[in-house]
Specification:
Lambda_DNA-bd_dom_sf; 57% helix; mainly alpha; two-stranded antiparallel ribbon; 434 Repressor (Amino-terminal Domain); DNA-binding
Amino acid sequence: MAHPIDIHVGRRLRQRRRLLGLTQEKLAQAVDIRFQQIQKYESGSNRVSASRLWSLSKALDVSISYFFEGMNGAEPKLDMDLRSEYGFSEAPAEGLLDEKETMDLVRYYYRLDEEPRRRLLDLARALSSES
């Protein structure tokens, strides 16, 4: 069984890779490994070594600490704990940030200029209060 910290690091790896629009194969090529290894890292089934974590951080243009953000002490934050942090009245769906669609939405949102981004956010707020 995978350790919770390995799962957290794998999730952060997947989130960043998807946010950048990289495939597992492209990331694997960048760090000179097979894409199956990236799959194993992302699922938490294989632990990422320190040297590999350094290579991945360079390829993804983040600090090594990025992979550990969101952890509370020795255990990672559970998705349920994010409820108050992000203003959810109920717990967000399990693995919400693991969804490709969510990461695509975030990536495209931040490609917009400030004014269309603000209008899109206002629209989302209005639509969510209607339901």
